[in-house]
Design goal:
heterodimer; A: TIM Barrel; B: 290 residues; two-stranded antiparallel ribbon; 41% helix; 13% strand
């Protein structure tokens, strides 16, 4: 059905090297000053990066570190699990996220997590319920976004976060190699086909800045080309690529995220402050920009 | 938050001065097998902040950033912003390190007081006697330690033992250190990246902490640790005498790595050890440094 929420926003291939000014409408003072961490995980799960292991991220620790870092809201989502979980499993995980948001309404903004491949055929109905009835404000997909999920996302007007280079999603081939593509091939068609959907590319396109460090350059080019591709700042180990992004990408396209509690939100906050952006731009990166992508979030 | 913390830290250092520094050294004498603390200049009023792991030089490959160029000016700029007084530098990847080590010595001379030069060698790519080179580099060029990126030969280890210099090594696995550390108890070994760069394998962080726990002459550098709770764990399990501030600059960034230590809000004298006193002790004190 490929339902696009606002057809007039459609961007033809290669036509938007710089985003139009109207893509970034002015925000209210309140929205602009709220400091929001757009990428945190809570609860138990499994992490493949850097090495497969069990993890458990405590929401109370997240709150403590975030308060120390001056973060006022955190977008929380469930920790990654194995890939073959059933649809009902994600539903229960997201319900727990919604419960945590109810418990800390002034601290947490809930994102759903879904696997478009494992939940094929049922995902749309569940996601609509999670956003409309349970109050979740965005979605992270663990697995490549399909038309099913992006149609629902467009209909709901929520952002979608997707990291295409995740080792766990590209198991070693027969030679033991873990070659995986950079973000360009994953994002080019999605961003072109769904111009009304706002995509969040985590880790400036390359977690830990290793193996395929050129993925940072690809991410920067994607954000420059597509008005609807945003770059999240966490897990970038080679700081000069963040400086490159800050210099080359409009500051409206950068979103502060910490990837807590895998990383420390206090450290990730310091990393963004090191960019020494002019105050209005820094404020936008630290919260104003993600706030604009969350139309269902009422501060 | 960090500015306020920094200013109180500096104030504390100014007030406490040499007395605190001497105390920190004597407290850790039992751990060190290197030169005694008495070689430290007592007139030093402040423990210098030292980044013990950075690269300078050019290489031929032009394939990856770390095989292309490491600019001393970038290191100096980041060090100044981070409040770092001195930086230990050594070459980036080359096949032969003869010219690259000379370049390190020249860089140290070009920026007096800013850099401490280490030689770098490889028993795998340099097919000639390394011992006379290393003696020349330490005695004539003024380099102060050795950086390794692969397993050292007996020739290298024997020369290092005789020269009484520390080795900073990034080997493939932490367990590779077991092959030679027990046989060279008088050499101080610094394990790079808390055992695993960018936390690529957190089990390597655990292995490095275990290694440093078992051997008094094994230390860990703090550079490019992504999952910073392992830094906290290392300091908790080993004490502040065993962890050394490091950045792996200029691809790593000392402004980030120093914050990862400061955010732990350690007691000031513990923080001073990590930020400078430990590497100073392994190098034989500030007199030999200057």
């Amino acid at each position: 059905m490929n339902k696009i929420r606002n057809g007039s926003e459609q961007t033809p291939f290669l036509s938007s090297l710089t985003p139009p000014a109207e893509a970034f409408p002015a925000t209210s003072d309140q929205a602009a000053t709220l400091i929001i961490d757009c990428n945190t995980s809570v609860g138990d799960g499994r992490n493949w990066e850097p090495k497969e292991r069990l993890v458990n991220y405590d929401p109370e620790t997240l709150l403590r570190y975030s308060a120390e870092a001056g973060i006022q809201r955190s977008c929380i989502m469930s920790t990654r699990k194995v890939l073959s979980m059933s649809a009902s499993f994600y539903k229960e995980e997201n319900r727990e996220i919604a419960r945590l948001c109810e418990k800390h309404p002034d601290k947490f903004i809930g994102f759903a997590v879904h696997n478009p491949q494992a939940e094929e055929g049922t995902l749309r109905r569940i996601l609509i319920e999670e956003v409309r009835s349970m109050g979740l404000k965005g979605v992270r997909t663990d697995g490549h976004p399909t038309r099913e999920v992006l149609d629902a996302v467009a209909e709901l007007n929520i952002p979608v976060m997707y990291y295409p280079n995740l080792t766990g999603f590209y198991p070693p081939d027969s030679s033991g190699s873990r070659e995986f593509p950079g973000p360009t091939s994953a994002y080019f068609l999605m961003a072109t086909t769904y111009p009304s959907v706002n995509f969040i590319l985590p880790h400036l396109g390359c977690y830990r800045s290793v193996q395929f460090w050129t993925a940072h350059i690809e991410a920067i080019e994607l954000a420059k080309r597509f008005p609807n591709v945003y770059l999240e700042t966490s897990g970038v180990m080679t700081h000069k690529y963040l400086e490159m992004a800050a210099a080359e990408v409009p500051s409206e396209k950068l979103l502060f995220g910490s990837n807590a509690l895998e990383e420390d939100p206090r450290v990730e906050m310091h990393i963004v402050k090191l960019l020494k952006l002019p105050k209005p731009q820094e404020t936008a990166v630290l919260g104003g920009n993600i706030r604009r992508l969350l139309p269902h979030f009422d501060a | 938050m960090s500015e306020k913390y920094e200013s109180s830290r500096r104030e504390f250092l100014t007030r406490s001065g040499a007395l605190l520094f001497a105390g920190a050294l004597s407290h850790s004498e039992g751990l060190a097998t290197g030169p005694p603390a008495t070689t430290v200049a007592k007139e030093e009023g402040k423990v210098p902040v030292i980044d013990c792991h950075a690269h300078v030089g050019i290489a031929e490959d032009l394939v990856d950033p770390w095989d292309t160029l490491a600019d001393a000016e970038v290191l100096l700029q980041h060090a100044e912003e981070a409040g770092v007084d001195k930086t230990v530098i050594f070459p980036i990847n080359n096949k032969s390190y003869i010219k690259a080590n000379e370049f390190i010595a020249q860089t140290c001379q070009r920026y007096p007081g800013k850099f401490i030069g280490f030689a770098r060698h490889s028993a795998y790519t340099e097919h000639y006697p390394i011992r006379p080179l290393l003696f020349h580099e330490i005695h004539d060029l003024g380099l102060r330690g050795l950086k390794l990126h692969d397993q050292p030969s007996e020739e290298i280890l024997d020369a290092v033992k005789e020269l009484d210099i520390p080795i900073l090594a990034h080997l493939e696995r932490v367990e590779d250190f077991e092959e030679f550390v027990p046989r060279y108890p008088t050499i101080n070994f610094i394990v790079a990246h808390l055992g695993g760069e960018m936390s690529a394998d957190v089990d390597e962080h655990l292995a490095a902490i275990d290694l440093a726990k078992r051997y008094p002459n094994v230390y860990l550098d703090s550079s490019i640790v992504l999952i910073t709770k392992y830094l906290e764990m290392a300091i908790e399990k080993l004490g502040p005498e065993k962890v050394l501030l490091a950045s792996d600059g200029p691809d790593g960034d000392i402004r980030l790595d120093i914050f990862k230590i400061r955010v732990l809000k350690l007691p000031k004298k513990d923080e001073e050890k990590i930020l400078g006193a430990n590497i100073l002790r392994l190098l034989g004190g500030s007199r030999r440094i200057s």
